[in-house]
């Protein structure tokens, strides 16, 4: 059995999530899980680089070699990362935001290389699912390094500033392969936080990130959870994962 965790998610966090679509938990990731996630990131970047080299390309999907990476680890077979995905901390976060039924939907590392990590355009995560036929899901933006405006942190548009809390159709940027859904001039709210923090936001919250102008990588791990299995637009197959984590308020998966 795992030790009982005093929830870092307060009633104020829950209210902010309902009102604005996000909240931030600073320095909450246990040291052993932070180290686990850091240890795994370079192995997974090397795997994607090798795939690009084999195909003779510098861009693979929204990955740009030597610049920015979106790399699945657990989905690619690295089951040790499940220790964090299904941890006490993430159980508290997901119960507070999604309720009594929680599934792991997606996960990936998001990395910006030193001095050239590219920006990422305004989008909702639901824009990459590409259809509105699903409940909003939860993105957990877990900082493996201190994040700030200089190293390409994420900028959020709370619901009132975006003018919507609903799914918005996105356009594809042919140059970057980014999907773009917001074209206004609001610069957004930068997330300035130490390593081991978690920015929790709904899949319908618009966000973007800037370039990394520092001499070090900016590394983030991004598990996403849903309140139901997410399907494709016509409901014929799963969009990605649907691994049960919490069912009827009780955990059915436990990390270490």
Please describe what this structure looks like.
By secondary structure, the protein is α+β, with helices and mostly antiparallel strands. The chain has helices at 11-20, 31-55, 82-85, 88-98, 125-129, 159-162; strands at 22-25, 59-60, 63-64, 68-71, 102-112, 120-123, 138-143, 154-157, 171-172, 179-180, 189-190, 198-202, 206-209, 218-226, 243-247, 250-251. The protein starts with 10 loop residues before the first helix and ends in a 5-residue tail after the last strand. The mean pLDDT is 92.
Query: What is the number of independent domains?
Result: 1
Looking at CATH, the homologous superfamily is q2cbj1_9rhob like domain
User: Uncertain runs with pLDDT below 50, 5 residues or more?
Assistant: none
Q: Report the order of strands and helices.
A: HEHEEEHHEEHEEHEEEEEEEE
Label the structural class.
alpha+beta
Helix fraction by DSSP (H/I, runs of at least 4): 10-25%
Overall pLDDT metric: 92
Taking Cα atoms only, what radius of gyration do you get, to the nearest Å? 17 Å
The description of the largest β-sheet is: 8 strands, antiparallel
